[in-house]
Specification:
Helices cover 15% and strands 27% of the residues. With 62 residues, the protein is of the alpha+beta class. The model has no long low-confidence stretch (mean pLDDT 86).
């Protein structure tokens, strides 16, 4: 999560993945120290769920 001071009492939040500034009232997700905007949520989910990924038919290769 990237926070930088803009003016006293106001912080600037940026998406960790794309760097876009988040606007007041905009929803975002924080997971394992990463902050994601709505557009980057699928990428964040893919990263975080990568250890759970399986490929159909790949079970027999163990």
């Amino acid at each position: 999560m990237t926070k930088t001071k803009r003016r006293p009492g106001a912080e600037l939040l940026r998406c960790t993945l794309c760097g876009r500034e988040l606007l007041r009232g905009e929803e975002y997700w924080v997971c394992n120290g990463l902050l994601a905007c709505g557009e980057c949520l699928p990428d964040l989910a893919r990263r975080e769920l990568a250890p759970c990924r399986e490929i159909l038919g790949g079970e027999a290769e163990i």
